[in-house]
Amino acid sequence: MRFRMLAAAGVLAGAVMTATATVPAQAAPAAPTVEAAGWAMSIGGPIRSCAAASCGVVYQTSYGQDVYWDYSKINSAGNRWYHVTSPATGWIYCGNISAPC
Length: 101
Description:
- The chain has one helix spanning 2-20, and strands at residues 38-43, 46-48, 57-60, 63-74, 80-86, 90-93.
- With 101 residues, the chain is an alpha+beta fold.
- The chain has a four-stranded antiparallel β-sheet with strand order 1-4-5-6, with no helix packed on it.
- β5 and β6 (90-93) form a beta hairpin.
- The longest helix has 19 residues, at 2-20.
- It is globular and about 30 Å long.
- The protein starts with a helix and ends in an 8-residue tail after the last strand.
- Mean pLDDT is 79; it is low at 1-28.
């Protein structure tokens, strides 16, 4: 009997919490950041003409090659891309360089 009362109280408390929970607002797209711009090592990925995998390849980096980036941004798919200026100007996916994702 006591267990049923505790279980019922738990279900009721859960229902109340669910009913009063608010959904967080959708975050606005992140603005370009410049916190730690500088040199990073490529692990062998393409520099693209825009910040998406569907964009054309401007330059193909090789493993260990240094790239210089000046800012990053989150694209519409939620992926971080770095704007690079050396060895070519364009965008490189965060998973292709040693900078953080």
